[in-house]
Amino acid sequence: MSLLRAIATIGSFTMLSRITGFARDILIAGLVGAGTVADAFFVAFKFPNLFRRLFAEGAFSAAFVPLFAGLHEKEGPEAARRFAEQAMAVLAWTLLFLVAAMEVAMPWAMHLFAPGFAAVPGKMELTTELTRITFPYLLLVSLVSLQGGVLNSLGRFAAAAAAPVILNLALIAALLGLTPLVPSPGHALAWGTSLAGVIQFLWLLAALRREGVSLRPVWPRLTAPVRLLMRRIVPGAVGAGVYQINLLVDTVIASLVAEGAVSFLYYADRINQLPLGVVGIAVGTALLPALSRDLRGGRTEAAMHSQNRALEFALLLTLPAAAAMMALAHPIVSVLFERGRFGGAEAAATAAALIAFSSGLPAYVLIKVLAPAFFAREDTATPVKVAALALVANVALNLLLMKPLGHVGIALATALSAWINCAVLAGLLRRRGGLVLDARLRRRLPRILLASVVLAGLLAAADAGLAPLWADPSLAVRAGLLAALVVGGLLAFALLAQITGAATLGELKRAARRGAA
After folding, report:
1. I need a surface site. Which of 106, 155, 181, 262 has the fewest CB within 10 A?
2. Distance separating alpha carbons of residues 24 and 18, to the nearest angstrom
3. pTM of the predicted model, to two decimals?
């Protein structure tokens, strides 16, 4: 599968995941709001997902995919399958013990993860109870990540990319169906999270079998490839998961800022995650197997070409997306979430956080594109050092900005630390000869930036001109206005890209046909 087609496949399913995710969050905002129960569930939801993104999606995938792809390329599918079975056994038993230990230690863990909740009567206890329900999801979804890594290495991206949709649908069903049967909507969402893990595992198990791959349960054995995998996981946990570590720091500090701050940051980050997931995760997921195969096969020029096109494609989509979200932050938040227990004050607070998060969107995506260049070269140590630097910067910026800017300062600190991470990764990769910008990319970058800046100005002017209409209480009217602005923005950027030479429609069509964009 070509790089562009792989990105399009992953991006399409990720877009579906984000759409169902927004439907889920709209329901949560309307039925739960941004108070004690919402804060408690969002922490309970983030806690297992933090470990998943660090040790499964992040470190495990970054270490596993190059090794699996290399074995498949050099020794054949049977050797790769045996390695996957042993890796799954080690992962399953390790996480089983981790889940059991954390279930026991959860009250103490919550005091570290959300210390500010202790000031609100009953909030810490509720958070602990909900997190105990959601934490087994870590084991299931980590096995799902391994299954997805096998499928991605085989060039089969659809099933793994569709798995997050299952989580969103399960949470929607739980919120609507279980809420009358359990103590709170937070309990319904927590049980829905763990149930989703079971369904996702069975979904990818069936997808593997359709590809003729059967990962049988075996006793863990520390074979040479498994030992190598374990050595690479620990540093990769920090290198690949710096964004998640920053969100952990944000959650800890937000719990100390004000009631509802955790929820404001959650809702803003969910909107920011739409382009990050559709573009960043799609490009990074598709790029890692391609780079691994090309570098293992000695095809250095092909690897560099893929790297340049991935950078170009990522920036062509994320720079205008960041510009649009900063210009339209308040209308976006208002249309998506302002109803029920989520009022105007909550919408304004969330929109301010969204502007700050959006300023770092290109950096978040570029990290997803640059990190695979290190992982494909089997270098997980360098991203650790860079991640440590970015993490220290994030903590320092959080402490500096939280007092004058509140929860907005926390979001801004995350964005600034992402730019630091991105700049250092790019500099090191360039110095080592792993990043050489070709003439096409050097010519396109300033043009993409110019088109994005003009787009932001046009959207801000249009938003200001429509100010009297935004006051209309009808959701249908406000949603129609936002849809018109989004469609208008897309058409405006397409025209600006043509005028400035950032991209041409004919070129994209030719690239799609030959799979070389």
Report:
1. 181
2. 9
3. 0.65
